[in-house]
Amino acid sequence: MTDAPAGARAREALAGLTGLGGFFSLAAPPPPGSDALPWADVLAAPALEARFHAVRRALAEGDGLPVDELDPKVAVSAVQVGLASRLWSVALGSAVLHGWVPDLGSASLLASPVHRGTVPLGVADPLRGYAVDDLPEAASVIRDVVVDDSLAALVSACASVGRTPARVLTSNATSALVGGARVLAAARPEHADRAWELARLLLADPVVARGGGAVDPASLPEGVGGAMQRPDEAFLRSGCCVFYRLPGHGLCPDCVLAPGRPEQVTPGH
């Protein structure tokens, strides 16, 4: 899985991810005394239920609502899309910029089990991962370790524990992939072509494609469709994140409901 050159790539990738900040952050390894736990424990029912409740309370307080007036599925969606965004961002950033994919499989992955914990995402061994020499190879590795493993476990756990339809969560995950490519391309414009090429390769995967895909913007009402790289493509998801149930939050531009309700789209969401 690793050799000396790959180890050098791993170190460069981790340093590069640190420079990107935000959802690209990866603790490798987490600092001593952190609250990081294995991915399976993070997704276990007791931890997820507590996390959903904490996020529901935070969202309700932010909007001045009693907790019981905020749809619990909004909190489930928020938790899941946040973790999915981190998985995609780390995988895309390290692969595109450094030819390296950290081992983000569920057996290697760590994270804080609580909302706003000290380790949003981490791995125990910073040198464990995959050197990838081209984008098709990167896409293949990411399918194996993220799409079919850690991300699948995240979707399954949130659907079961959070009693939220898998369609919502699958479309969240695919939308998060497009969002990760968009942020990476903006942060490193010299690598924008590679970021979007890798995103397109992943969108072609049947599992990822269940959550949405690129459509012709000319087929959509004005203001509908998530921005992609080219003027002839826009992203439309197959489900709804249900954030529109928050006060003052309309439909996202890429929402499955947006083509039929363009007047309800909130630009920039």
Automatic annotation (TrEMBL):
Residues 237-257 form the Ferric siderophore reductase C-terminal domain. It holds the Pfam family FhuF_C. One of its GO terms (molecular function) is 2 iron, 2 sulfur cluster binding. InterPro entries: FhuF_C (IPR024726). It comes from the Bacteria. This is FhuF-like iron-sulfur protein.
